[in-house]
Structures are given as C-alpha cells and as structure tokens.
Amino acid sequence: MLLLPCPWCGPRDEVEFAYGGQAGIAYPADPDALDDAAWGDYLFMRDNPKGRFAERWYHLHGCRRWFDLERDTATNDLLGA
Amino acid sequence: MRYWRAAEPRRSYDVVVVGGGGHGLATAYYLARNHGVTDVCVVEKGWLGGGNTARNTTIIRSNYLWDESAAIYEHSLKLWETLEDDLGFDLSFSQRGVLNLAHDLQDVRASRRRVNANALNGVDAEWLTPAEVARFCPIVNVSPDVRYPVLGATLQRRGGIARHDRVAWGFATAADRLGVDIVEHAEVTGFARAPGGRVTGVHTTRGTIAAGSVALVAAGHTSVLAAMVGLRLPLQSHPLQALVSVLVAPVLGCVVMSNAVHVYVSQADKGELVMGAGIDAHNSYTQRGSFHVIEQQMAAALELFPVFAHAKLLRTWGGIVDVCPDASPIIGPTPIEGLYLNCGWGTGGFKATPGSGWVLAETIAKGAPSALAAPFALERFTSGALIDEHGAAAVAH
Amino acid sequence: MRRLASGGAVDRGAPLRFRFDGRELQGLAGDTLASALLAAGLGGGFRSPLLGRPRGVMTAGPEEPCAFVEVQAPWFDLIAPATMVPLVDGLTATARAGVGRLPGPATPTPPSRQRHAHVETLVVGAGVAGLRAALQAARRGDRVLLVDERTFMGGTARSSDTVDGRPAWAWVEDAAAELRAAPDVTVLQDAAALGVYDAGYVVVHQRAAPVQTLWHVRAGRVVLATGAHERPVAFAGNDRPGVMLSGAVLTYLDRFGVLPGERALVFTTNDAGYQAARALRAAGAEVAAIVDVRREAAAQEQARADGYGVVAGLLVAVEAAGDPVRVAAGVALTATGEELRFEADLVAVSGGWNPVTQLHRAIGGGLRYAADRSCFVPDGGPAWLEVVGAAAGEVPAAAPCWYVAADDLSGHFVDLQRDQTVADIAAALSSGLRSVEHVKRATYIGTAVDQGRASGALAAEVVNQLLGTDPGAQGPTNARPPWTPVAFHVLAGPYRGQAYDAVRVTPMHDAHVARGAVFDNVGQWKRPWYFPRDGESMHAAVLRECAAVRSGVGMIDASTLGKIEVVGPDAPAFLDRMYSNQMSTLQVGRIRYGLMLGVDGMVFDDGVAMRLADDRYLVTTTTGGAARVLDRFEEWLQTEWPHLRVHCTSVTEQWAAVAVAGPRSREVLQAAGTDVDVAREAFPFMAWRDGRVAGVPARLARVSFSGELAFEVHVAGWHGLHVWEALQAAGSPLRITPYGTETMDVLRAEKGFVMVGQDTDGTVTPHDLGMSWIVNLRKGDFVGRRSLLRPDLRRPDRRQLVGLLPEDPGVLLQEGAQVVAAEHAAAAPPVPMLGHVTSSYHSAALGRTFALALVERGRERLGAVVCARSFDGGAHHAVPATVTEPVFYDPQGARRDG
Question: What is the model's pTM?
C-alpha cells in the first residue's frame, strides 16, 4: 500500500487515489499540425522506465486534486512530489 | 529426462531471441521446427521462465471478441491441443472448461455478443443460464439474493489450464534438441548497431552476440530494452498479483472468471486454488503489489464461492505485465531494421504462448508479418485501428 | 515422552480437556496442542502427505513440517501446525496430512473485523530483542505496536538464561508489564505479521477468539525481531517420529515441562546441541551420546569433562521400530571411520540457525552468506526497516553440514511435507536443472503449507553442494507473504453478502419496493427495472408501461442520472472543449444535448446540459458515467487548462428527479400544483424553469428521452419521495403509470436515441452513430477532434448504427446477435461478420419487434436484408431482417410537444 504525499492533504494511502500514468504529456498546442504518427505518439506512446518515473496521481477520494510525483518503479521509493 | 543444455553463447547467430520465457522459447522452437532456422540463441537475464511464465494463473482459452484476436488465440489453443505430443513433454494440460460469469444486463449482452462471434469464427462457445452454470460448476453461488447475482455465463469447454513451468521447460528442451542455444543469466545491456541503424546484435553481461535478427520477447521489460534503441512504445508495466491457497481436496473442476465480481480461479491437480484479479494501477517493476488488491479478490471469491470461506491463503506474488492501451499484443517488425517485437500481451500472455511463438517465428523467418500477426502491428496506434479486448481480457486494468 | 513433575510455564492446577483423533485427552493451561500430545505420549501419529510415512512433532514453532491438524472445535481451522495451536478446554482436532477438506455450510464462518493503526514503531516479535526495541521506542514517546505470533512473550529465551543480569523470564515479565502500562503502546499476542509492504505498511492477523482481526498498520519504522529457526540436517531416516530439532527439545522441557524422550542422541554442528543435552539430563533423561560434526570445539571438552559421551563425526542413519513407528537407534560414523550404534528414542538435531528473514526479503531486502554461521543473514533493505537479534544474524557459529553423504540418499529428507529427499534434488540436478528456483519447481520443495520454513535454506545448500559450488552460492528461493496461512474469510472481512459493495438507492426507493418493483443493478445503484402488476410477466409489464407512456402518461425515477454543476467565467469555453458540439452558445434557460468523446475520438458519454446562468451549467451524464465524466473534467481543468476559471461539483445525490412523460404529462404537473406556466407556448422544448411543484422548490426541464411530451421535475433530494408521491397522486385519475429502465430503454430505442455503453462500446465514433451533426468542427478544438481524422476512424467500411426489422414481426433478435450477409444465414464458420445487434425490443407502439445494430457500411444497406445469427442453448437462430434508418417512431418529432 503505497503512501502518497498529496501536496494538499499530506501522506495518504494509495486506495484514496487514481493513477494517471506518465506526467508531463502536454496536450499539443496545435493538434491539426501533427501528422497521424505524431498524434498517435501523443495518444499512446509513453515512457515506461525501470527506475525514476515522473507520474501523475489524482486524489480521487480526498481533495480531488492532481499532482505529479517522481517514484522509482524498481523499488517504489518516492523521489519527490 | 534431460532438460535443456546450459549453452555457452557463441559469437553470432541468425536469430537472437531476447527473453527466455514461454513466448521467447516458443519462438525459438517454432523457428527451428517450422522453418529449419536452428542457428538461434535465446538469452534470458535470470533463470529460464522466471518472469511472467512462472507467475501467471495458467488459464488457457481463446474466447476473445474480435476476429483478429479469436484467430490468434484459437490458433494457439489448437497448438495447445497437440503440444504435449509435439514437444514430447507432459504439461498437465487439462481442457476442463472456462466459465466467464455475467452479473448485469450489459455483461449479458457483451457475453452473448462474444459467444455468437466465437461460434461464427469456429471457436467453441456457449451461453449458460444460471441453472446451467450451477450444473456445470456446483460450487458457484447462483442465488439471486447476492449483491451482484450471476445472470449467466459463457463457457468455452476447450479452455483450461496447464502447468506453467513445464511449458517453459518443454519448449526449452524441445528447442535445445533441435539445436537452439539457451543462455541463462545473460542480461542484455545494449544493442549493436550498424551505421544505418540496423540492429546487428546484443551486448550482454556474458558478452556481445552478433545476430541477423533480434526479437524482443521480454514482456514487462520490453520498454527497458526498447528504450536502448530509442524506440518508444505504448506499453506500461504494472504488477499483476496472483495467489495460491493451501491444498484442499478437489472442489473446483473448471476455471471460473468474473469481471464484475472481480476474480478468476481454478484448482490445480495438487489441490491448491490458484487465483488472480486485477492489476495494481501504478507502474512498477517490483513484482509485488499492494495487499488491498488481495483482500478485494478474497471478498469477490467468497461472493462467488461461499465454500471457500475456510480455505487459507498460502502465498501471494506478482509479475510485471506489459499493458497495451487496447489490451491486445504488439507483434511484428519495428521501424528499426533487424529488430522484431512481440509484447503487450499484458495480463493474458500465457494462453497465447504457443501461438505467439509460432506467429513470431513465421514473421522472422519470412521477414514479413504473418497473417495472424499483421493486425497487431505497432502501426495501429498511428492509424487508430486498435483491437479493444478489455472486456474479453477479463482482468481489470 | 511424559510431563515432568515440575518446570515449564504451564499450570498444573488448570487441566484442560481436549480430543485428538477421537481420543479424550488432558493437557494444561499454557500448552500448545503439540506439547499436550507429547506430554500424553502421542508425539507421533501423523503421516506424510505423499508417501504416508509416519511422522511426529519435529519442532516447537511455525517451522513445523510434520504435525499438521484440522481443528474442529471450539473454532474451525482447516489446517495448522499443532505447535501453533494454543490448547483450550474442549479443543477438538484431528491429524491432517497435507490436504485440507473444505467444510460445508454447517461450519460457521465467525465474524472478523478490520482495524487500522498508525504508529511510529512497529515491532514484530516479542522475544528479548523485540522487547528491547519496543521498550526503547516506548520510552522515547513513540506510539508502539508490538506483535508476536505466540501466546507467550519471550520467544526462545530460556528460563535459565539471564538478560541484563536478571533471570530471562523475569526480565520478560517486567518488560511486558512496562509496555502494557504505557498509554501509547499496544501489545498483540497470537498475532502474526503476514507481510511488510511499501512505506511501512504491515498487515497483522490477530487470531484471538471470538473475533479475528486483520490489522492494517502504517508504521514509521518497522523492527523485525523475528528470531531464527534451527536448521535440520538430512541423514537416512531423518523424518522418523522422534527426530526433533534440539531447540525444540529445549522448548518442550523449559516452557512446557514435557520430556520428549527417555534416551536421547544429540547430533549437532554447533554449541546448541550441548545445551539440549544438559537440559535432557537435568530432566532425568539419558543422553546416549553427542555427535558433533566439528573435529574440535570447546564445548566438546567441557561436555566430556561432565561425563557426556562426545563423538566427533556424523550421524549417518536413524533406525526406527515399534508401533507406532518411532526412532529406536542412531548410527554414527566417527571421524576415524568407525561405526557406532546408539539406542535412543529421541534424536535432537541442530544443523545451525537460519535467521527468519521472510518479511524482510519480501519487501526487497537481500541476503548475504555468513560462512562462520553457515547461514544467510539479512542485508540491505528499506531505510525504515530494521532487523534485530537472531533475525539479524546473532546466532551461534555453526559448521556447515547439510546432508550426510551416503550411497543411497533416498531417505535423507529435505522437505518433509513434500516427501522430497536429497536424492530427489540430485535427480532434478542430473536432469540438467541448475537453479534453486528450478529445483523448487521440479520437486515442489518449499511450496507446501509450511512454505519451506524448515527446508528452504537446507535445499539451497544441498543444491550448492551437489553442484560442487561453495555454500551460499545460491540462496533460498523467494520469500512471499503471507508469513503464515490465513483464512479467506478473515481477509474478506466485512465485505460479505450485501456489504460486498455499497448499495446506492434514490430517495424514492422505498416507494418502489412497496410497489413491487423488480430492480436492476446499474453500477452500484438499484434502479426499478419494471413494475409488474398482478403477477404479470416482464414482457407484459413492459408492453403495458410503454403503451401507457405513449398514450397517456407515465413516470420514472430519474434521480440516478449524473449531475455536475460547472461554474465559472470560463465554463462556456470549457464545455466547448469537453463536448463535440457547442455549449457556449446555449442561452440561459435552455437545454442542449451533448456528446463527449474520448481523446481517441470514441464516444465516451452523453447527456444534456442546462444553462443556469452566464457562468453556470448543470451537466447531466449517464448513470454509470457520472464519476468518469467528473474525473475527466477535473483532469483536463487541472492538468491542461489550469488557467480556466471553472469549478465542478458533483450534485448527483443532491437532486432527485422524476420524469413525467406522455401526452398527458402537462395535466399531471398542473394537477400536482405548480407556479410554472407549463402551457405549450410558455414552456418550449429544451427549456427549463425554476418554480415550485407540489409545494416545494423545483426545477422543471422539458427534455424527453421517450420522444413524448415530458417534464423532468428536479427537487432537492430530501423532497424526492414527497414529489414522487405527489405526482403519483396527481396523476392517479389519469392512470399515471410508473415505469422502469426497461421501458425507458424501449421508448428511447423506438426514437433512435443511443444508449452509451449499450449501443457503443468504446470503439464507436459519432459518425458511426449517424451523429455527424453533433460534431462541430468550426468551433475550435475539443477533446477527440483530432482523433476523428485518423485513417481508421474514416474508413468507409466502419460499422454504422442502423435499425433492423425482423422479417417475422414477432421474432425478437437477441441482443448480441451477430449480423451477417443474408446469403451467410447458414454458412459454416468462419463466417464474415458485419456487426452486432445492440438493442432489441418488442414495441407496443409499433406492434412488432425491432432492433438497433452496428453494421458494416450500414447506411449503404438501407432496405437490404441481412441475417442476425445467434446461439442459445443448443439452438441456432438465423433471423432475416431489413436494414432501416435507426428511428422507428415519430421520426419528425411531432409528439414531443404533446
């Protein structure tokens, strides 16, 4: 049971959150300018490292705020919110 | 019985398969058996079959929804049906039937849709009423008074289970006999590239091995390897937990799966109940998940099988499943010459073991995607032609 | 085997009756079942699961590999080691060889509960090391939880030991007293830590009757003081009843006052065997000899000086005899090659000590080999996890001796529950397997109910030795939770029966129940499916309800519809981005239907939005989609457009809603009493008005899912039942008919309104549905827009929503039937499929059946005949049907104004 540091509520159990996958995938400013391959990249291609990973979490059963976190996916060590 | 040799890796091979699990070993076997390509080396970073092959809940079936999926899983099931003879190896393969339970009206519609599609694709499938479910599997609670009553189920009689370790060992031993080299404890640390970008071999902790073609069949670690050649994939690696109970006298003669009351369970010949449910939601390579996932599947198990109340949990563990956005695999060449991919089987790889290997072997041997593999190309994420099998995958993502 | 006249922590003044394998026996308070059996001379009487070999109690703890029992009274336990079953009055148990029998429903499942705790320090193990750690933490003010799986504290501390200069047991009592008196310290006994998880999360199973408790603990620091288990040695006949671990012999003598044999042979690799020998002699037993694998050791000289026969050598074999079978003699081989035979009824073995590291390893801790102690000790691990005491490797030095060499190794048992021997390991290795993990999977060593506690380390070293590698080259196989088995029902906790998942009901629920509604589960909600009258079938009820709505008036509880208030100056712009059509142009006071797409272009949800003010909308969603839609709104607002000034609030439960539908619905509203002018001219379609209905504040909305004139009455949740009943009463002269979700589905399908999640499955675009009109490409970007341009979403052969009219108007197509070309009605597989039937009903209005389907190139096939094939039981149905527009009733929409 991960203990996730919600920036507003403090450390809370994993079951209060929903996972949002990789952080930092910004919605393209001009989607029409992207060809299908680039658009497919935005929709689907993701980093999936064994190690440091910047990810998003959503405090669904709490303050309902999204935040980013860095976690080591090989150990579950938290590296900063 | 002599299992596979501990081969010393040679300098080069026609084909290097990265990943010594069921799919990689099956690939090597079918390369040798079907195509006479025996100059093959399988490199495995740990002990053979020690990844997801050792950790899954051993369910085998082919009752997926879309034509493309049914085709490849059914091809795999047909291979299962003669695999023990083919490999000369006992796999404890048992076609004891797989029930997928429906608990609400939309479950019923989706189930009937799948049964009809299966039947018209030549895949055995039946719809059972609750009374028929109870006759087929007497310990399922079909009472209408429970929180989410069973409204019926699909049944694939030809589905069942096999002993996962022996599948890996069977493919390894048979491939070895055909001349394939299997090298354990050799972790790929990088790829050798030609000036044009073509992959020409692998660097491992046991030396560099040149290769005409390299196939990545590394399940949850696929992205790690792909990142070494700058290939970005739509995969996310998650823990998938499974568990066994203490041994109990035989009570469950088939496989039972439920999406809504989420758990799937069978009973191994030794007597343990083998169970699983959904993935842990976060990305992880730890091969462990959180305990609340186990507790939730316990509650689900007791809803469906009140008789399990006094069974005892003996052991939990986890694998690393490479989940794809449409719950379908990625098979075929990559944009990088010489590099092939077979991954994204996510929570459903074990059942596909022979079919996956067969199809990848054909693709590598012919240098072009086999017909069964073509719909699962990486390109589908550009075109949008996804093959959405979340419902049929029967594992919560 | 007998009870000693004195000694031990048992109460000779408190006898307890118990029944074992049908025999009435007596033990003492403080016994375990195992100690009571030994005291009664019944330490044997068990069988091995596979070979049926006679077995006896071998240990005194959770590492027991032989003496398994099923407990029937006063609680049921499917299978447990007798060494861990506390003796209580009336205990009834039978020996169990490996495989449990699930009891029938007559065996009660006692209640269990879940508790949660947050502590600075959790200590696992109340031996001396654990008590020290707990005291230290308590004294510095930590909240402390101390757990121990035994019913006594002190672990393996002997009464003759001293701790800090005091007799050990007195020290333990004082420590326990101090901890129990401390206000922020909780001590749990008979409580096993099942597993340690990320960030100090520990699950503890407290077995105290009558309510078993599963503790979920979040600890800042976890201290593992789990001790060490003695390791056996494999030699011929080492599984015989009467072969025990030397520490266990000591425990039975010291803690339980039980003498496990009269004439003992000791076989040891370390000094521990000598302690057992002395205790045996002090209790009145004979010590035939002490066989020590070490050539020389200080303990040997001292023992010889004290009159013990010490043999430097190996115990090669044990002979057994008698009925029941038991150890009768041991054969030793001296260092000089001499064979010596000793008669004995007890063999006390000490192969060394294995720190108990399972909890540490399962959370990522490692091991390293300590050659001086011939064992693995913990290494590394998370910063918040500490291992202390014997568990950390504070165990005696021991010489390595895993098995005693012999030509025939088939009686040298390694895993007694799996009946696997050194010969079995050798066979696995000679077949080419090399990894301990492979040997485990070939022999099943370590996978039995004892999970290799007494065999895992031994098996690994046997592999190392047989492969000719150094001790420690390979370690034991992976450790996994739970530490000991726990019943499914304890883990399921209170989430059983109707409590398995929350039940959501509307404020009108009781009225529906009273009316005899048959309910349907829609997610967690209970919604009336239909309201049968006078025993009518569902088919009849639905036809009646449908006819009533179209010809008169009906009413449906629409409270479960998702409702979200979207507020802020940027709310209009935000909704323009969330819907495929434009919401910013919606006037205040009006309502607009909208479609939401996923970023992949597929239909995600639908519903109507009401514009309440310039900066305020009430958005509705499907019942099942409410949470999804709100989460999606939040995700885009917070992560992509944080500059937009918008707030979203779920108000699904705050508003109850009743839809009054049918040509006479206006009259019902008027009869119920409203200050809103509901006349046709005053209240247009797709408008809303605030006012009062039946004496309470209400919002009226003219929307219609049925296509008839309809008014949705929205009131605060606490007025829901009142308004339902008021409308019922007002409509009674008009024979107003309550209807459920089935009728709702039929009516909307007659009008061709899609049900997201039924007519769509996440792979359907608005164009597929024939709803290109709702995709506004001129308004600027919205979620899903770009994806609609992808090649696969523009294929001409995509599956499109159409209607199907079966050739036989009385035949109902199966929902889920596959649509094929007419000429394929009887074709054998593989049959090309064009699509499937998504919705299918009997229509009261049409007097016939009809269906909606997604069909390849559907809109090009209008008027053509296709075939719907389905399988039901053993029957195959192939129904010809004509493809039509997906609207069957009132295509012009003339009925909506009444």
Answer: 0.97
